[in-house]
Amino acid sequence: MQNPSGTRFLLNLHRCRGPITVEEGFNLGIIVRILQGVGMKVISASFVPYSDGTVNQHVDLGESHYSGGTYLSRRHAALELVICNETQDNRSKGREAADKIIAYFEPEETDVQILTWEAR
């Protein structure tokens, strides 16, 4: 597939040493700055904190979206970055953003899946 219509980055981050709770300093603004820093257009951003301080997070992008959640008992972050490649190839932006988001959470182990698709 030479120019896929979209790319989906699935990030499973295990035993995170970085902030996964509000009390530890989780900051959605940092995620927003990462996405903007690689050239993505942020339309809106929100997060929902839970009683244990973990968060669900979502960012709408001009290129599609980023979303995910953190899980305290295993210090895990399950994240998804979906980008559209219809008007331009955004794969390199997606790869760079994924790498920087992974670095923010500081996982001991990382499982990354990159999926692409063609519009039919």
Characterise this structure:
- The structure is a single chain.
- This protein has 120 residues and is an alpha+beta fold.
- It has one domain: 4-Layer Sandwich (S-adenosylmethionine decarboxylase), CATH 3.60.90.10.
- Helix content is 21%, strand content 45%.
- The chain is built from 2 helices and 6 strands.
- The protein has a 6-stranded antiparallel β-sheet with strand order 2-3-4-5-1-6, covered by helices on one side.
- A hairpin with a 5-residue loop joins strand 2 and strand 3.
- The longest helix is centred in the last third of the chain and has 15 residues.
- The mean pLDDT is 94.
Order of helices and strands: EHEEEEHE
Beta-strand segment tally: 6
Query: What is the overall number of helices?
Result: 2
> Any low-confidence stretches, pLDDT <50, length ≥5?
none
Number of domains: 1
Output the CATH class name: Alpha Beta
CATH superfamily: S-adenosylmethionine decarboxylase
**Mean pLDDT across every amino acid position:** 94
At the fold tier of CATH, the topology name is S-adenosylmethionine decarboxylase
Q: Report, as a whole number of angstroms, the end-to-end distance.
A: 13 Å
Overall radius of gyration: 14 Å
Basic shape: globular
CATH architecture label name: 4-Layer Sandwich
State the helicity in percent bands: 10-25%
Strand order of the largest sheet: 2-3-4-5-1-6
Percent range for β-strand residues: over 45%
